[in-house]
Amino acid sequence: MVSLTFVVIAGLASLHFLLHVGFGLGRGAPDLLTIGLLLAAREMRIGWSAGLGFGFGILEDALSVLAFGANALTMSLVGMAGAATRELFVGDSWLFVVSYFFFGKWLRDFVHWVLMGEELRRPFTEQVLLQGLTGAAYAALAGVVVLVVTGFSSES
Amino acid sequence: MAVLGGDFEIGGGRRQVVLAGVFVLAGIAIATLGEATQQRIAGMLRGSVLRPFVAMQEGLAQQRTRAGSVDQLRVRVDSLAAIVTTQSVLVEENETLRRLLTLSERLGPDFRSATALRPGTSGSESIFLLDVGTDDGVHVGAPIISPEGLVGKVQDAGASSSVGIDWTHPDFRASAMIPGADVYGIVENRRGAFREEDRLVLTGTAYNEVVLDGSDVVTSGLGGVYPRGIPIGTIDGVADSQGTWRKSYWLRPRVLPGSITHVLVAAAGAGGDAMSWPDDEDGGLEPDAVRDSSGSGPDGNGS
């Protein structure tokens, strides 16, 4: 089960870069990297989850010369937060799943916005509220689709 | 939903917390590294793990370029041929005059064609990847242009690829002028409430200069970063005025960064003048408008 999860996570990471970089879809494609990290965080211990977040984040940073390191730090924190939620919630309902992906992605955008620095970041309304919330909804939808397609949802 | 609530060890112990702290500290450390080191790390990752994805976008962009309208390309070739033909006499005359004045030959910039690729990831909105690098003579700070005008400059150059920024980047600045009007200033980015509202503004112009809406703004060549005569945009109203001594003007940019797929990057000799800009059907600058402040003529050689 664990190995299948990590195959799915590796697949999501590859698909993320394929859609965003390979096909150049930008925001047209969901943030599968964050979805993969949030999924992994529920399976991994907090340290390894932060490590995976760091790895994912630095790959995104390599494509951005604006605020190098901001994605690595953000994803490390999101990985930690995702792993920490296991102590607070043992989710099994669709409401939890949707909320988990939604708030996880929104938190990722918010922390990244904070870490980008005043000179580089867009206004809060645009980047965190408008794009952040729509991106979070898109990620939650994509996360649910991933769970359904991979069959994880039927294993409860 | 086993994945979201399955077997796990709660907490993970102190070692796990320390490990998480190490990764967070590593994140902080790389964010505070020097720019050169950061670029080296980014370049290594782009050239290894991310290379297949970047190469794929390069391939797709080249396919799109090849699939472009032949008619449109023919029109452009015809326009360029017309310009080259009419300029050959001027070039010869220029060379003769320079020889008479015992002036050395004036070198213009040498451009390399490149494909611009958008990473499409968080925090990479104002940057694009180029498939040319230092092996092609491209260097940091080299101007990037498109058939419409100035796109931006090279921010980081690797051996075979480089990273460019467009005019929506907060660091973008270009020394500019209005040909024939003797108005000089600096063009910079003014951020709007939304990315779509980002605009260019011409600042630092004298208050008493009369600048008409629709006037073309081109690079002035001052500062040696951008060659003179590259179109940037057209005047689109007064932005603000400081007292009674300085005015700023909004610009309507010639280049829309989102539409950029194919660009030219200056390889050497970024100073000097851009030769006459092609008068294409996409709204290229009128040849007469590319004129230096001394009114030397449409070739823009200024000598």
Verbal overview:
Chain A has 156 residues and is an all-alpha fold. Chain A has helices spanning 2-22, 32-41, 46-61, 70-88, 94-116, 124-150. In chain A, helix 2 packs antiparallel against helix 3 (46-61). Chain B has five helices and twelve strands. In chain B, the strands form two sheets. Chain B has a six-stranded antiparallel barrel with strand order 1-2-5-4-3-12. Chain B is globular. The interface between A and B is large, with 73 and 67 residues.
Query: What oligomerization state is this entry in?
Result: heterodimer
How big a fraction of the residues of chain B is strand?
A: 25-35%
Shape of chain A: globular
Structural class of chain B: alpha+beta
List the defining traits of the structure above.
heterodimer; A: 156 residues; B: 303 residues; alpha+beta; 6-stranded antiparallel barrel; 6-stranded antiparallel β-barrel; 5 helices; 12 strands; disordered C terminus
Note the topology.
The complex is a heterodimer of chains A (156) and B (303).
Chain A (H helix, E strand, L loop, with lengths): L1 H21 L9 H10 L4 H16 L8 H19 L5 H23 L7 H27 L6
Helix pairs in contact in A: 1-2, 2-3, 2-4, 2-6, 3-4, 4-5, 5-6
Chain B lengths: L1 H4 L7 H19 L3 H13 L3 H16 L3 H31 L9 E8 L9 E4 L12 E4 L2 E9 L4 E5 L6 E6 L4 E8 L8 E8 L9 E4 L11 E12 L3 E8 L8 E7 L35
Quick rundown:
The complex is a heterodimer of chains A (156) and B (303). Chain A is an all-alpha fold and 156 residues long.
